[in-house]
Amino acid sequence: MEVKLMSIKPSLPLLLVTLISLSADILLAQAPTPRRPVNGIVGGSVLLSVDPPRGKKVKQIEWSFSSGTALKIQLAEFNGRKFERPDPSDRFKQRLEMYNETSLRIQGLKLDDSGIYEARIKLLPAIVEDRAFLLTVYDLVQPPQFQSQLLASTPEGCNVTLQCQASGKGNMTVSWRKGNLGQELDLGRHQLSPDGRTLHLSLQPSSLNSTYTCMVSNPVDRKIISFDLQSICRSGDADTSFSKPGYIALTFFLLVLSLGAAIWCWRINNEKAADTAATPTGPGEESPSDGQYAEIS
Questions:
Q1: Which parts of the chain span the membrane according to its record (predicted)?
Q2: Do residues 119 and 106 make contact, with C-beta atoms less than 8 angstroms apart?
């Protein structure tokens, strides 16, 4: 008897479907939990809240923190209304608080509190869900350094340069506004430097009553400085044909000229006084006031 062995080869479409399914499962398993962005300010506080599915009862919530490295710190556990800290002496110490059964509050924020906060939610009967927050802590914005430079002021208009420099740490944005309503600048009519910190203006007399505002900001704080163009441009109305060095040179020249004239007058007066004192009086001259006497015999 002859037995024939037949090999069964899987069809190509079935193999592709299997590979695609496995790849999708692997990608889903490796996909990180979406992170909700949260901003905070140094010295302030933030509230991290999770929303469990409706109709589900929370058994436990585990909170953890990582600053971008592989090391992850377990911060706290919520067991109903019970708040437990595995390591109360960690870098957060007494700054963590259980706001309610599903919310963690962090007080006295510091710059190095920035990082990823994860919450593992255990629901009854046996469901686990993960939530993640990306916290970024910003420093307070310091008052900007500002300067104005008058280039020219004539009856026909005013040319001026405004500078606004951000100070302090962190990434900050410098923006300009026009008028009390904070209108955005028309870049076609305004010359703004590439870094946005220097504004060149050429204004007509009818526009001198305008106010320009510089705002330095980050996502949680801002500082504003206003420039009064009318005051800046009027500071050059006295004489626009001379620059500041020209005025200094002219003042020095007039001072030297006045001093030279005073010395010349003093020498002339001294010479006249010396000539008068050196003129001699003759011995035979009689004073006109002397009387004439006649001899009587």
A1: 247-266
A2: no
Q: How far apart are CA 198 and CA 196, in angstroms?
A: 6
User: What are the residue boundaries of the structural domains of the chain, listed by start?
Assistant: 32-138, 145-234
Got the DSSP string for 129-158? EEEEEEEEEEPPPPPPEEEEEEEEEETTEE
Instruction: State residue 81 phi and psi, 5-degree precision.
Output: -100, 10
Please provide the size of the chain in residues: 297
Q: Are 117 and 48 in contact (CB under 8 A)?
A: yes
Residue 231: which residues within 8 A CB-CB, separation 6 or more? none
Closest CA to 149 of 244, 248, 247: 244
Whether 45 shows a pLDDT value over 90: the answer reads: yes
Distinct helix (H) and strand (E) counts, the chain: 3, 17
CA atoms within 13 A on the CB side of 169: 7
Give the pLDDT confidence of 124-158 residue by residue, as tens digits. Answer: 888 899 999 999 999 999 988 889 888 888 888 88
Using alpha carbons, select from 271, 173, 247 the residue that is nearest to residue 215.
173
Give the amino acid at 61: I
CA distance 204 to 51: 58
Count other Cβ atoms within 10 Å, centred on residue 134. Answer: 14
CATH class of 145-234: mainly beta
214 in Cβ contact with 162 (< 8 Å):
yes
pTM of the model: 0.63
Rounded distance between C-alpha atoms, residue 27 and residue 293, angstroms: 149
Q: Which amino acid is located at 277 in the chain?
A: A
